[in-house]
Amino acid sequence: MSVFPYSGYAGKYLRVNLTSGAIQHGPLPLEWVEDYLGGNGIGVRILWEEVAPSVNPLDPENKLIIATGPLCGSPIPNAGRLEFIAKSR
Q1: Could you identify which of 65, 68, 74, 81 might form a hypothetical disulfide with 43, taking C-beta atoms 3.0 to 4.6 angstroms apart as the criterion?
Q2: N-term to C-term CA, the chain
Q3: Model's pTM, two decimal places?
Q4: What are phi and psi of 27, to 5 degrees?
Q5: pLDDT confidence of residue 2
Q6: 33: closest CA among 14, 68, 9?
Q7: 13 pairs with which residues across the strands?
Q8: CA dist., res. 18 & res. 86, Å (int)
Q9: Residue 71's pLDDT is what?
Q10: φ and ψ at 26, to 5 degrees?
Q11: How far apart are CA 15 and CA 72, in angstroms?
């Protein structure tokens, strides 16, 4: 059982570096959950902070973020959404 105060969130996220194969997980900041709506909002926040405006869409510095919302896995119809977030033209 999660001690994360918001239902639907596990309280952590996973980072995978496809170049080096390194895998790490970290805590999901509470302010992200409070300020941004679902996996799409949190994914765009990560993209905004970590990808410079000068990065082209096909550059290795670009990130591909795969995120689900807090209702994913629930019995609510059409709640199993999955977002792929990356910088494009």
Answers
A1: 65
A2: 41
A3: 0.78
A4: -75, 145
A5: 56
A6: 9
A7: 26
A8: 15
A9: 78
A10: -140, 170
A11: 19
- Give pLDDT, residue 3: 59
- For residue 6, what is the DSSP state? S
Distance CA 23, CA 17 (A): 6
The 10 Å CB-count burial string (b at 16+, else e) for 35-57 is eeebbbbbbbbbbeeebeeeeee
83 has pLDDT over 60: yes
Reading the block at residue 53, the tokens are: 């405006």
> In this structure, what token pair is assigned to residue 66?
């795969």
8-state DSSP, 63 = -
pLDDT at 19: 85
Distance CA 9, CA 77 (A): 18
